[in-house]
Every structure is written in C-alpha cells, then in structure tokens.
Give the backbone structure.
Amino acid sequence: MSSEPIERRVSYLGDRLRGSRCQICGKEYFEIRDYCGDCGRKSFEKMSKIDLFYDLGKFEVCTLVSEPTNKFTKLGNYFYGIVSFHDGKIRVPGRLTDKIVKCDENIDLSTLEGRNVVPRFRRRYSVDKNDVIPTISLAFTLADEYYPYQEYKIAKPSKEYDAPGIVGYAVYTSRFRIREESIERSVPFIDEDSITAAVEAGKLALIHSGVENSEVGKVYVGTESNPYAVKPIAAKVAQVLKLGEEDEDVQGVDAIDTEFACKAATSMFKDATSLVSYPKSNVKYAMVIGVDNSQAAPRNCPGGELDFFVGYGGAAYIFGKYDVIAEVEGWYSCTSDTPDFWRRDGEPHPMHGGRFTGDPAYFKHVRKAAKKLMEQHNLQVQDIDYFVAHQPNPQFPTRIAKELGFKDEQYLPSLQVVKFGNTYSGASLVGLAAVLDVAKPDERILVASYGSGAGSDAYLLVTTSQLADKRQRQKMSAKFQAESPFKEFVDYTTYRRLKQGM
Amino acid sequence: MQIRPAIIAAGRTKFGEHYEKEPEKLIEEAWLRASQEANIERKNLDACYLSDYFLPITNKLGLEEGFLSELTELHVPMEVTRSFGSALSNACNAIQAGKYNMVLVGGIEKMTDRWDKIRDDLMLLEDPWSYYAGGTPEANHELMFRAYIKKHGITGENLEKLNVALAQIAVKNHLHATKNEYAQYQRRITVEQVLNARKEARKPLGLYDFAPVSDGASSIVLTNEKTAEKFSDKPVYVCGNSSATDYLSFSARADMTHFIVTQMAMKVALKTAGIDIKDIHLVELYDQSTFMEMVSLEDLGFCESGKAWESVYESCQNYKGHYDIAERKLFTNTNGGLKADGNPLGATGGAQIFEIFKQLRGEAGERQVSDEKELKYGCTLELEGFGTKGYVYILGRN
C-alpha cells in the first residue's frame, strides 16, 4: 500500500513542478518555501509561487539507467539526468520518457546533453493494483522531437459572440505507433494512460485557446478506460492544470468524469455550451475532454477483434462565448438500450457484439441523429461543408457518410482512424479537430458521434473568422502528430507490452 | 585542545556476505577483537556510540542500543547514528569534554539480508525527488562525472586517459585488497575488465567502478590521552576532525562537480590538527565509486581541481603502491577501499579508521606501507549520502 498523505503532497508538487522564488534575491526553489534560505526572515511574505509546468528546460547531464530501482523495472533502460530551468536558477532530477532504448543501441550521452526538454505528465512508477496511481512531471521529452515546446500565452478576449461555441481545442496522441496494413494506430508509452492523456490534451487546449486556466469553471472527462473504477480523472486534470481559482491547494472548479462508451465526451458538448450560456452559472469557460486507452483482449480471445483497431489518445475542447472559433448551431441526441459493446466491472477487456455492432447499433443511431438534426435546421447535405462521424474503423464512417449522401471532400478530412486508430471517447473529437485544423471561416460542420449501449450525439457547428487567427498557436495539430518524423513504430509484442502500462 | 582523544584498540570483521550470521554476531566479533587487543573489559566502558544506516529496515531492528545492551549486559549511555564518522564525532566530543573516560565506537551493517530491496533502500540517502524521477544509487556518481568532464572541458585523448585513470583506481584498490585478510574481494582485476564492464553497460561507470553491497562490523575503543597510556604503548591520537553538511538534493547544489562538505571538513580538521596537508602521506578515501575517490583527492586538497586524474594516471602507469602527487607519496586506500574491502555502510568508516590505526602502528602486516616510520599522520574521509555529510579525521602517533 502506498501512503496516501505522502501521495497527495508529492503529486501536488510533482505533477505541476511547483516551486518558489524569492522576490528579494531571485533565488528559486523546487518546493514551496515560506522564506528564502539566503535572505532569511526578511523574505517572509516575499516568496512568490512559481511552477515549471509550461517551461522549457535543459537536459544538463545524463546517464543511462539499466538497473533501475524496483518500481521502475517496467520502464526498461532509460536516460536519467538533471534538468535546469530559468538559466540554471533551478535544477531538478528527471528521466527522459517516450524513448525505447534498444539493447544494441550505441549510447552517446553527449548527443542528449545540453538539449532542450519539455516536462511531461506521466505515471511515476509501478504500484500494486489496488494502490493510488502515482504521477509526476519529472518526466521529460526532447523539445525538438514529437512534442514541441509551446508557450502558454493568456490572450485577453476581444469579442463576445451571440452563440456560444468552441474557443480552443487540441488533439493528444502518443509518439508510438503500430502499423498494420494501411492503418497506423497510436500506442501509449508504458507510463501513459487515460489520465495522462486527459491532462496532456487539456494542457494543449489551454495553449490553443489562450484562455486563462483560472477562468475554466467546469471540466468533463469522458472515457471508458479510467484505470480507476472509482476516482475521477477530472479531479487530476483540474488540479494539474489549475482550473478555476486556486485557493490554498483547492481548485474552484467543478470536475466530473462521464461514461457512455465512445460518446462520453460528445454528450457533454451541449452541457458545456449550455453552462457557459446560462448567465447565472458563473462559468465563463467549460472544458470537455474525450480520451481513451482502451484495452483489447488478445486477438485469438473473445473480444480480440477490438485489438485490430484500438488506438490511444483523444482531444480536449474549451467552450465559451468569447473569441469563439466555431459556434454551436444546434444538436440532436438519440438513445436506445442496445447491447453491442460492454465491459463488466473488474474485467480487463471489453466484449463486443460482433456483427450486431453494425446495423442495429452504429448505423441506426448515427443515421438518426444526423438526419434529425439536418431536418430540424432545414439543411441538405450540400449545405454542410464537413461531416464528422465516430470512427471505430475506417469502414463505418465511410459507409454512413456515403449513405447520407456526403462526397469524399466532405468526410475524408475527418477520417483520422487510419492515423491514430480508434481512440474511443476521443474518436469523433479527433475527427472534428482535424476538420477544424483545415476549415475556413463560415463553414458548417456536422458531427455525429456514437456510443455503444447505445446512442449518438449530432452537432452543427459554424466556424468563425477567429478559427484561422488562432491556428498558429497550436503546433501539435492532428496533422503534425500524424506526420511527425519522430513517431516511432513498434512491433506487435512491444505494442501489447506498452499498452499494458506500468 | 585540552583533552585529546586517543584510540587504543581497533577490531573488525571480514566484509562480505555473512548470510549465516545475525547482526549481533558481527558487532560482537569486532568488539572482541578490539577489546582483546587492548585488554579491556566491558566494565571499562562509560558509553557506546553505534552506527548503522539500515538495521531497522534490513533486519527489523529498531532501538539498536537495546540490542547492544542485551548483548553486552551493559547499561551505560548508548547512542546510535548513521555513519561511523558521526558516531566517532560524538564520541570525540564526549572525551574532549571530559565526560567519559573510555567509550566504544562501533559500526555495523547487514545489507545482503535484503538483497532484492537494498538498492531501493539506498535511495533513502538521496532526495526523494531523485527517487521519484527514476534515479538509482549509482546515477549521481555518473552525473557528477559527466558534469566534471564538461566543467573542465576534458575531451579526446585526455578523456580517454581520465577513463583509464578511473579504471586504474579500481585495479589499484583490488590489488591492495589482496593483502587484506578482511577484504571482501581479495583478488586482482584488470583495467580491461573495468573498461569492458562499462562498455557492456553502455554507461560512464560500470560494475567495477562501484563499491559492493556488504555485511560487516567494525569497532574502536576511544579514550583520552592520559588513560590511553595505561592500556597501550602506542596509542593513535585523533589530532583533528571535523564534519560539514550540504543539501540532500544533489541537483540543487551550486557546484555539481565537487563535494563542498569534503573541502570544508578538511580545512577545519587540518587547522585543529595544526598541520599542513603535506604532512599527510596516508589516506583512506570514500570510494563508493572510482570517480568519488578521484574527486576526493581534489576536494581534500591533495590535487588541484580538474587535475587529480592526471596524477592517478601517471602514478598507475607503473604502480608502486602509492600515488605520486607533487613529488610526494600518497598511500591511498591501502585496505582496498570501499571498492574491494567492502562497504557495509555503518561499519565502513570504522574500517577506514582501523586501517590508519594499524598502518600508523606498523601493524598492517603484508600491506604495511614501506616507509611506516615516516608516517606521522593519516587521514580518513567518510561521506553520508551523496556528499550530504562529510567527516574528516586526521590521526597521528604524536
């Protein structure tokens, strides 16, 4: 058993890399201090809080760890060293993550030393199955590789819109991929899971939106692969991203996890939209995250068919009424009790209704939601510029798009499943993000998600001129991640091992 | 100094794997050897200072004082600290203050009883963040080594020489241990072995660069100058000693290429002993790694900063049993150092004192350094953690 009070303190400091700075002499500390060691008593009340979460560090010196301590053995070989921030004012220990060190690889430490690194939010080490999952941001990746350094610049809103909508978004998928036939799928590194993906996606969405973290009043995390049966991922997101006003060590934000197979997040788009519109809610911005690290049974076992398509990652969206990039025009949802996919409590892998998953499940619900919404708004297929459907595989979204009468150019930009695999609760969100990455102002997008069990949420969005303005703020676009020269391909055995996690 | 502490006896066990022995057997053995030598009885002891790092963890033995009392039937004041250097420091203070006449200082560690977890335990000696970030007991040595290379701009041929010099330190220490019947590894190794182990591990330092995990115990009997004369015709005096403390977090220290605790402790120890560093020809260094031995030569002031490897390299080309530093002989780790003698943490410092004690008295047998008669002073350096605490002792015959 881990010790929970220690866990709380370590993750409070370590997840965000919190520290202090003496306002008298400028000395910095990687810890919360009430006074400066050099300045002594006169520095009481003169210590400001800092954190390194969005900062660029430098990997000063490093070594290879091939015989780690017991809780780190699943990481295999890794680089460990000292990272400096703020021109060496503050130095912390750190390990390089997202790197598989091969047994025959020639090691030259000087090729890593002196390079810039970015803090990443990851699992800290392995623990027993019934323990609290420890996390930390003393895990770093090279800033000139898959995950570039991006400044988090808060932008003062310039315009209030009549209709609420999306003000920022981001996709997060891992650096690793498995390629089988024509499909590439994201594979989490061994220290990643749906918790870490949710934080990463939320972090990148904040960067894209320029929204001040303290002004986010609600966060929803939709997932079906929370490593906990009971314990919200949203609380971790709220704490690490410092959403809402921070008072002592508590965040003034409402945070909740939602679950409805793959539509857990899209379902909340309308809740977020409504919340930011209601004048008495006091919520200026709401964040919706959809991520998954769904597990699949081995291929020769029941449920093993899911192993061909399962990916990793997701996306985050921030809703509000200021500096909107895509206004929400309307929505329609439908639900039925259809048992096409499920996972019983305590079971590691979900089960799948085989052929049943197609017509009576996916197609029936997506068709209904999309059609109803278009009818309600008197829209024809040609009035819509882009169509985004839930994408558990390449075939389903293609078939439904064609059936509804959409042309290639309307639905192909959204088809991301061939690049990242099925990201479950993140799938339609990633598809929408890819469309927003390329859409022009004043274009209409129809999104129809699907969640097994079963239901669909359809949304109509209309882009604004601010879409193009904000685009340059996000280096980590879906395209950037899909086409990165730094993505690394792993074989099937490695993919299964990484997917199992620490 | 009004009252000078004097060592009248020293005893130790063999270091290594003592699977068959309970921890108390080891300390008993060390104590018996020391007490027999000086013909001391338990009743002569006014107090005991014991050191161990991990007995509560490795052997579920907390309140070690109680178990020592049970073992000895002694009910005198007893205190436990982590390192031998720390225990001895407390003992010296008490003797100097005139509070006690004669005390036992003992050190013990039983690491192999917890073979599968001992490297995790060793992380207790570092800042927790380095553990959380994936650090290992070896990592800081390698990081400091990397920082040292960078700071001093050592490249190319010089870097190769430095790498060989560090290997030679391990080779030299193993050579010394062949003459030490208490040593854990009484066999020679070669420079190639050291270099190959690094190559195999693909790391700056390899298996042969690091001290082992060991079991063992050591003890000395400390008294004042006056009492010493009654029990021994050649007591060894603690002429000067000091310690210093630094951050637990290696990464947060201002200088990542040196141990300031060593520098500070040595400065004060020399001052209290009233001698010059040139008077010291015998030194026991805390070589948890070969790099640590090398950098300690600089921190203690024997070599200039960034230059120790050159002296080591030149001395080991045709090794004559000592380093040649500025045309002076420096006998270093004559017992084989932590590398070959062994490193049962709480007892290690005792083995260092034991060695200087024996050498200064001309009782080191086969490994007695040739010019024993010229040996006036010997010095020990013990570190707690990765340079978090440093203890320096200067011992002398006069």
